[in-house]
Amino acid sequence: MAKSSGGYACTECGWRAPKWVGRCGECQQWGTVQVVGTPGATLARTVQASAPASGREARPITELSGEPVRHRPTGIGELDRVLGGGIVPGAAVLFSGEPGVGKSTLLLDAAARAAERGGRVLYASGEESTGQIRMRAERTGALHDTLYLASETDLATVLGHIEAVQPELVIVDSVQTLASDRVDGGAGGPAQVREVAAALIRVAKEHGVPVILVGHVTKDGNVAGPRLLEHLVDVVCHFEGDRRSTLRFLRTLKNRFGPTDEVGCFEMSGSGIQEVPDPSGLFLSRSTEPVSGTCATIALEGRRAIPVEVQALVASTTAPNPRRVTSGVDSARVAMVLAVLERRARVKLHDKDVYVSTVGGVRLAEPAADLAIALAVLSAITDQPLAHELAAVGEISLAGEVRPVVGGEQRRAEAQRLGYRRLVDSDSGTLARARALALGE
């Protein structure tokens, strides 16, 4: 009789191994390889079929109700924008982000707003004591009589709190700090995270109570724990921002009830996190007079068009290797734009230091900022300021062409709304033509 391929398997992708290893050889996840049988024994199991419960039989899709999903607004406009209109009853939402970015503060504000509408909200934290949460709530104005706090790390106790309070919203901070005594291993392990998430999601589906799970992230920015966690939940949100900046962005990576290309803007302050419905003035300088080396562009964050100012400084140097310093823009794309300027536009940059930055700490990673970077560098090297009412949007190819970008009409409409009467884009055709239009040559 042929032997089985082994008694260990990855709980994420199903990869099998003849002996235990710490890292899966297929999906490269750590701690997911577990014993599923003795070596030489088959891993297949036979499950006896059972009749479905009454009311849960399979039915033709044409007989099912086609009513749209009902969203309950949270009271925070930017959060509702990202979620597709609000939180759906019975939905499981995974909320991730780096430590200190403001996840707990934002969710505590959302919990207080839900309590103000008359519903009971349970905020269960395994990281902070109730006293610490109360202090933050006083600072941010999130105190309410129907907002219940619990500091627990045991899954069964949290489920008991849910049964006792009967809340309309449950927030668990975080899923990696809870543990069940029915599963071996410490809190945060793959098996524990799966068990905790499955139990809370089951409560959400059975009782129609939305559950928000806060998830830790790894140093790579991914949600810590098994990848299965992101598959189980209905919505995956990621809260991001630079600690050196007060700006925060909320994005959806998965949403079964709405779009996944919306972005919410928030600003961190001493009194908590404030939503920014119109971020058009956050990334522009306050100078009233035109300054050389600056050029505005229209960036797309999800479905939202945001004006961003790109600044460049060019200085002569005697060093054999001139410096190329960037902040807020992709250094590789800046190097490519400088090479195109030197080769196609005959601009000498091999003996000059070039500094390129954005205003407000925003990061531009899309090719649409290429033309604004090029015009800012040209303005800096010629010391000719660009007009305040001019904006540039376009991708620069290695041949020196200005190519169209995604969302061109939306960017043009936003530029007109903000008062940019001149928009240099792919209609200029070439970099030389764009330079002439921008500098008036």
Automatic annotation (TrEMBL):
Span list, region Lon-protease-like: 353-441
InterPro entries in the cross-refs: AAA+_ATPase, DNA_repair_RadA, Lon_proteolytic, P-loop_NTPase, RecA_ATP-bd, Ribosomal_Su5_D2-typ_SF, Ribsml_uS5_D2-typ_fold_subgr, Rubredoxin_2
Sequence positions that bind ATP: 97-104
Domain RecA family profile: 68-217
Locus of motif RadA KNRFG motif: 254-258
Classification via Pfam families: AAA_25, Lon_C, Zn_ribbon_LapB
Alphabetic keyword roster: ATP-binding, DNA damage, DNA repair, DNA-binding, Hydrolase, Metal-binding, Nucleotide-binding, Stress response, Zinc, Zinc-finger
Domain-related comment: The middle region has homology to RecA with ATPase motifs including the RadA KNRFG motif, while the C-terminus is homologous to Lon protease.
Function according to Swiss-Prot or TrEMBL: Plays a role in repairing double-strand DNA breaks, probably involving stabilizing or processing branched DNA or blocked replication forks.
Assigned protein family: Belongs to the RecA family. RadA subfamily.
Protein name: DNA repair protein RadA
Organism encoding this protein: Leucobacter iarius
